[in-house]
């Protein structure tokens, strides 16, 4: 969405338009402070979006809270709504957990490899980064 002028205006509509023209929706979740909860819920509420949605969820179990400052509560970084979405995607084998940037790269490579093995176009991936203050600083 950063490629679209005024990316924080009408995010709901922009997310839906982008999702309509992509083969795979990939979210990178680091916490619940990103302001994209409506979009996350929407992509799981409609089957045509949910069927193509994948999420890379950051885990904090092995991280030291003092090593980074993201302004979040790492003991409970996700909302109840996100937790339910993660469970649904996990049941569908479309949730990848990551801790480090290398883990995130592995999630991405595994998804692209799996898509290629299933003859899915990988040049039209929608990858909204669903957190603010990303510690990775990378766009997918």
Question: What's the quick description here?
Answer:
The protein has helices spanning about 10-20, 35-45, 45-50, 80-90, 100-115, and strands at about 25-30, 55-60, 95-100, 125.
Please explain how this structure is put together.
The chain has helices at 11-20, 37-45, 47-50, 80-91, 101-117, and strands at residues 24-29, 53-58, 95-98, 125-126. The relative contact order is 0.23. It is an alpha/beta fold and 140 residues long. It has one domain. The chain has 5 helices and 4 strands. It has a 4-stranded parallel β-sheet, with helices on both faces. It is globular and about 40 Å long. The longest helix has 17 residues, at 101-117. Residues 128-140 have low confidence and may be disordered. Helix content is 37%, strand content 13%.
Largest sheet: 4 strands, parallel
**What is the total number of structural domains?**
1
Q: How would you sum up the global shape?
A: globular
How much strand content do the residues show? 5-15%
Tally of contiguous helical segments:
5
Strands of the biggest beta sheet: in what spatial order? 3-2-1-4
| Helix percent band | 25-40%
Secondary structural class: alpha/beta
- State the separation between the terminal residues, measured CA to CA: 12 Å
Let me know the number of strands.
Answer: 4
Features:
140 residues, 4-stranded parallel beta sheet, alpha/beta, globular, disordered C terminus
Helix and strand layout, with pairings?
Layout: H1 11-20, E1 24-29, H2 37-45, H3 47-50, E2 53-58, H4 80-91, E3 95-98, H5 101-117, E4 125-126
Parallel strand pairs: 1-2, 1-4, 2-3
């Amino acid at each position: 969405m950063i490629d679209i002028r005024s990316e924080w205006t009408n995010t709901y509509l922009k997310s839906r338009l982008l999702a309509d023209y992509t083969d795979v929706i990939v979210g990178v979740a680091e916490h619940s402070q990103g302001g994209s909860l409506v979009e996350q819920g929407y992509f799981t509420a409609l089957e045509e979006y949910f069927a193509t949605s994948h999420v890379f969820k950051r885990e904090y179990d092995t991280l030291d809270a003092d090593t980074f400052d993201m302004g979040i509560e790492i003991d409970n970084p996700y909302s109840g709504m996100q937790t339910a979405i993660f469970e649904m995607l996990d049941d569908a084998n479309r949730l990848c957990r990551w801790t480090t940037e290398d883990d995130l790269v592995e999630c991405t490579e595994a998804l692209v490899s799996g898509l290629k093995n299933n003859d899915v176009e990988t040049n039209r991936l929608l990858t909204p980064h669903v957190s603010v203050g990303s510690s990775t600083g990378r766009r997918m």
